[in-house]
């Protein structure tokens, strides 16, 4: 198995990622670090190859956090810069009850301080070693939480690729927290991965074989291995001889113990299918009777995606933070734009700690309370979820909503599909781009590079302002061009548009971000989709 970013033994291991924030004036006192004026440092929880993890207390709220202190020189010497950068990039976007929480990152010339959620009960791996095989209800509860977190990753186009009990942490109430995203990859529609990574015992056949894979299916395989470990106390594929281990994995050779229930005996083999195209999907797992049994209410309806979450603000917590001396309007603006600063860190710490309810982290009580508050604040907001109803726009797999019947078509939907004529599709695409003030450059008949600068009215550099019709696009010359004169702004979004033909005689429109903030790109995609009339 691969070495972990930091090897911590059962003492509140936390894995996280980084982001910058405005630091306040320093405060004196014991346990203070000049670089961490908002925190009182406590004992060291663990020491790793290039840093340590300390427990700390947030000065404003009094809540505990874990601070990972990473030495820049050691990171560089161990060639781990990309791993750390990747984990930071991913977790800064995530807000889910079963994914380790990042609060902020403070960077200095010598170190990187990553402030994360503090979890005190160690790894699921150690829990299994101590307890042996678990009772089915307990194993199912862990598994439901894991699937919920993995599903959230996939909805946000991230494949973990290294799921294993060592990377699943437990909080004080023994709720799962998915950690260590250092091997994760951002999924790009239409692109396939070919990186062999992760721990061999949990890796899918296509991964250890070096074959191309889309991504989500490799996490499903790893979840199948984890479920087997929870219910059996052993691994389905295990051999000290690596070639023999690989042979077992590639052949799907394992034994199901007789003590497993019929539901578990059906679900595990459907996840450990060697052919990734025939492997069960996350939505299908969700609909499986074994998974549905005793499913907590808060897990029955997935949380909003990252854009929807940014719109949701808890009024009570907001008032608490304002009482600390922060400006209300600035705080609301920072929360909606996902900006990390002293005020938003306090807000999220208070929010997370308030709703660690006895029924489970973010249990049904949390779901009901939050929905009531959010709906009262946004009575006309279609993004406010209703209990027992599918979230708007929640469609992870082709033809698959939350309440569709099991089984369903096992296909990952890439892009936007249409049966319209390609000329009609591209004409509508140009109209939508023009409406949104997006500049473009034609690369081929069905491929173009695009650039968008938000907040600039009439961003038409290099664009022809005449009415758009099919001859403009399909003529021999590129008449609608982007002027590549540089627009120097961190908010410039560059992306590519490509139209493909599928086997089902449909056409698939794919948008790929090349440069620019992820959230702005997602906002642009939503606006672009709303403009199209042929999809």
From TrEMBL:
GO terms for molecular function: ATP binding; kinase binding; protein serine/threonine kinase activity. Its EC number is 2.7.11.1. The keyword RNA-binding does not apply. Residues 39-291 form the Protein kinase domain. Keywords: ATP-binding, Kinase, Nitrate assimilation, Nucleotide-binding, Serine/threonine-protein kinase, Transferase, Ubl conjugation. Residues 486-534 form the KA1 domain. One of its GO terms (cellular component) is chloroplast. It comes from the Eukaryota. It comes from Cucurbita maxima (Pumpkin). The lineage of its organism: Eukaryota, Viridiplantae, Streptophyta, Embryophyta, Tracheophyta. Residues 312-352 form the UBA domain. ATP binds at residue 68. This is non-specific serine/threonine protein kinase. GO terms for biological process: intracellular signal transduction; nitrate assimilation; response to carbohydrate. Belongs to the protein kinase superfamily. CAMK Ser/Thr protein kinase family. SNF1 subfamily. PANTHER family: KP78A-RELATED (PTHR24346:SF82), MAP/MICROTUBULE AFFINITY-REGULATING KINASE (PTHR24346). It catalyses: L-seryl-[protein] + ATP = O-phospho-L-seryl-[protein] + ADP + H(+); L-threonyl-[protein] + ATP = O-phospho-L-threonyl-[protein] + ADP + H(+).
């Amino acid at each position: 198995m691969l070495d972990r970013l930091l090897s911590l033994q059962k003492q509140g291991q936390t894995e996280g990622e980084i982001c910058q924030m405005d630091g306040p004036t320093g405060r004196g006192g014991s346990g203070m670090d000049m670089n961490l004026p908002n925190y009182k440092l406590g004992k060291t929880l663990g020491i790793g190859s290039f840093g340590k993890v300390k427990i700390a207390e947030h000065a404003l709220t009094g809540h505990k956090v874990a601070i990972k202190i990473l030495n820049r020189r050691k990171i560089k010497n161990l060639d781990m810069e990309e791993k750390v950068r990747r984990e930071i990039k991913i977790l800064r976007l995530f807000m889910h009850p079963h994914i380790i929480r990042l609060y902020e990152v403070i960077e200095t010339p010598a170190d990187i301080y990553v402030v994360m959620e503090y979890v005190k009960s160690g790894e699921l791996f150690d829990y299994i070693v101590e307890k042996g095989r678990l009772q089915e209800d307990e194993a199912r509860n862990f598994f439901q939480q894991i699937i919920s977190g993995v599903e959230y990753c996939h909805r946000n186009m991230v494949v973990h690729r290294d799921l294993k009990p060592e990377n699943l942490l437990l909080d004080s109430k023994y709720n799962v927290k998915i950690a260590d995203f250092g091997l994760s990859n951002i999924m790009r529609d239409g692109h396939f991965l070919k990186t062999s990574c992760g721990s061999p015992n949990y890796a899918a056949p296509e991964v250890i074989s070096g074959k191309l894979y889309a991504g989500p299916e490799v996490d499903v395989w790893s979840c199948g291995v984890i479920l087997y470990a929870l219910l059996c106390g052993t691994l389905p594929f295990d051999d000290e001889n690596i070639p023999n281990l690989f042979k077992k994995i590639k052949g799907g050779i394992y034994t199901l113990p007789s003590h497993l229930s019929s539901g578990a005996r059906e679900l595990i083999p459907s996840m450990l299918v060697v052919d990734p195209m025939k492997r069960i999907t996350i939505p299908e797992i969700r609909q499986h009777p074994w998974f549905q049994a005793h499913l907590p209410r808060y897990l029955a309806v997935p949380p909003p995606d990252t854009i929807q979450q940014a719109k949701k603000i808890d009024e009570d917590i907001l008032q608490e933070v304002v009482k600390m001396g922060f400006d209300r309007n600035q705080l609301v603006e920072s929360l909606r734009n996902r900006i990390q600063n002293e005020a938003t860190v306090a807000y999220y710490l208070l929010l997370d700690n308030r709703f660690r309810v006895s029924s489970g982290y973010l249990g049904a009580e949390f779901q009901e309370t939050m929905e009531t508050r959010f709906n009262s604040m946004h009575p006309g907001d279609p993004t406010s979820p209703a209990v027992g109803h599918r979230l708007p726009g929640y469609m992870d797999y082709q033809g698959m909503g939350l309440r569709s019947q099991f089984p369903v078509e096992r296909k990952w939907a890439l892009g936007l599909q249409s049966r319209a004529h390609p000329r009609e599709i591209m004409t509508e695409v140009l109209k939508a781009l023009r409406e949104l003030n997006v500049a473009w450059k034609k690369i081929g008949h069905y491929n173009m590079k695009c650039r968008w600068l938000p907040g600039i009215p009439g961003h038409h550099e290099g664009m022809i302002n005449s009415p758009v019709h099919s001859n403009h696009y399909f003529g021999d010359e590129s008449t609608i061009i982007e002027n590549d004169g540089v627009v120097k702004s961190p908010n410039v979004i560059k992306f590519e548009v490509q139209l493909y033909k599928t086997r089902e005689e449909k056409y698939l429109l794919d948008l790929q971000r090349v440069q620019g903030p992820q959230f702005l790109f997602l906002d642009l995609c939503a606006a672009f989709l709303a403009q199209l009339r042929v999809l």
